[in-house]
Amino acid sequence: MAKIPVEHTISSAYSFAFRNILTVIGIAWFPFALVIAIGAGLVLLMVPGLAAPGGPSPAAIAGLIAVAPLIIVAYVVANAMVVVGIMRRALGLAEGPVFAYFSLAAPVWRLIGATILVGLLVFVVVAVEVGVIAAIIAAASNGNNGALGFLAAILIIAACVWTIYFVVRLSFFLPAVVVAEGRIGIGRSWELGKGNFWRIFVVWLAVAIPVSMAASVLMQAIYGNAMMGLVLANQGENADPMALLNGMVQIFVAYAPYLIVIQLLQIIIMSGLTNGAIAAAYRGVTGAGQAPAAPAHATA
What are phi and psi of 100, to 5 degrees? Predict the structure, then answer.
């Protein structure tokens, strides 16, 4: 299998993301804003008292836990929608300006289905790893706790490394395969990832670290002083875990609008970079050029 051209993939990712930043924003803003609106609505309706002066009540925390799965489902659908929209643009399957985007077409559901299948496969792999490790440790148990602990550590590290390799190789090319080839294509994604793990890892670091660092600096600049003051006030004799927890919740609630904007921008920029990288890597390993434009499922 062909190797990913690392330098070209990284440069193509940044070139695509920033040359098409308005289009990326046009594709991403509405689905993610919809998730934020759904999440905020659910929290306001089902989690009263979250920002109470005395801190969140147990009922408020329980309500937050109850609505979390609904918010996660909304995010998964919105993210699949955005990935498909941006991937179509990155692969040259769509052209023209996009001001707002919403699609529940077949590629979106294929990507959701592929994501669920990958999650199930990873679950099975981890379950098998846990069973094998437990069986080996049980069989090797001879009363030497030091040697047994060392064996367990080696096996756990090996299992973690294999799991990371499995997830990366299985999922990296998946969005491009779903969009370009019109199928779920988990096997195809696995095939394209052969011999490319470290190249994928380098590409991912190159696109993820700068954006993550920039977002972290911005968030620290906004609420860092308040958080630091809270931590310093709850040290030593004044330590109060509940007061610290309640204070952290109140800080996050107070600065939530700013943090949401930063997170939204981070997600949008990362969507452009990662999909640009995946599309460039897919073209690099398959030899596929830019495909002719096809109708996009979008509203503009």
Answer: -155, 145
pTM above 0.70, yes or no: yes
> Is residue 280 within 8 Å of 192, Cβ to Cβ?
no
Q: Helix crossing, 58-90 with 256-286: angle to 10°?
A: 40
What is the number of other CB atoms lying within 10 angstroms of the CB of residue 279?
A: 29
Per-residue pLDDT of the chain (300 residues; tens, 9 = 90+): 689 999 999 999 999 999 999 999 999 989 988 988 888 777 776 666 555 555 556 666 666 777 788 889 999 999 999 999 999 999 989 888 888 999 999 999 999 999 999 999 999 999 999 999 988 888 877 666 667 778 888 999 999 999 999 999 999 999 999 999 999 999 999 999 999 999 999 999 999 999 989 988 888 888 777 777 767 666 666 666 766 677 777 777 777 778 888 888 888 899 999 999 999 999 999 986 544 444 444 443
Strand partners, 100: 299
Q: CB-based contacts of 259: which residues, under 8 Å, 6+ apart?
A: 219, 222, 223, 252
Give me the residue label for tokens 């919740």: 249
Going by the DSSP 8-state scheme, the letter that residue 211 receives in this structure is H
Task: Tell me how far apart the alpha carbons of residues 189 and 110 are, in angstroms, rounded to a whole number.
Answer: 14
Strand partners, 299: 100
Residue 80 contacts residue 115 (beta carbons within 8 Å): yes
Token representation of residue 129: 């790893």
Three-state DSSP state, 18: helix
What are the φ/ψ torsions at residue 95 (nearest 5 degrees)?
Answer: -140, 175
